[in-house]
Amino acid sequence: MEAGRADKGAGRESRRIRRLRGYLAALRKRLPVGQRLRDGVEHALMSTAAALAAYLPTQALGLREGFWAAITAIAVVQTEFGATRTTARDQFVGAAIGGVIGVAVVLTTGQHIASYAIAAGLSVLAAWLLNVATAARLAGITATIILLVPHPGTSAQQMMLSRVFEVGWGVSVAIAIVWLAERLDPHSAA
User: Fold this and answer.
1) Short-list 23, 77, 86, 22, CA closest to 50
2) Is there a contact between 94 and 138 (Cβ–Cβ < 8 Å)?
3) How does DSSP assign 28-50, residue by residue?
4) Coil, helix or strand at residue 97
5) Cα 26 from chain centroid?
6) Which of the two residues, 163 and 97, has the higher pLDDT score?
7) Counts for the chain of helices (H) and strands (E), in that order
8) Are 65 and 72 in contact (CB under 8 A)?
9) Residue 4 pLDDT > 70, yes or no?
10) Most confident of the following: 22-26, 82-86, 102-106, 152-156
11) What single string gives the DSSP state of each residue in 132-178?
12) Ramachandran class of 77: left when φ > 0, alpha when ψ lies in -120 to 50, beta otherwise
């Protein structure tokens, strides 16, 4: 009985959150063009700075596929620091979950399409069970990268470590860029 009430309550909360997101999106669309332009330029500059700062040192850091750090930085940068932190957590946790499960599946069943299906499904499920459902997509994406993207001369374990480090680096740079931008923005003083 208690579990049924908790499930209904959680469902109601999820619907409320989706409704609030819809309201926020509608409010953003009603902003004047000039404000949208200023906000867009600010976001574009932060995203570009984060992508470049994440990508440029990847070779020196020994990261073979530095583009993942740049992609992660762009995906993480939000217009405010709290949202950036949440997105960063999702990116990193999702990469870690998908990486660990992807490697575990490859080591136990080999690398074929059935293994991929198992790894992707288990990665999404694990994120939900660990109460980070917002990281589920990223977990599935990382499992996909480990099992479907060819990496000649690289083991699944090396690929997982590389992916997690690249994501971690991109996340760290994005957080630093948004944190710095908020402190330099004279309009963000609270």
Assistant:
1) 77
2) yes
3) HHTS-HHHHHHHHHHHHHHHHHH
4) helix
5) 24
6) 97
7) 7, 0
8) no
9) no
10) 102-106
11) -GGGHHHHHHHHHHHHHS--TT--HHHHHHHHHHHHHHHHHHHHHHH
12) beta
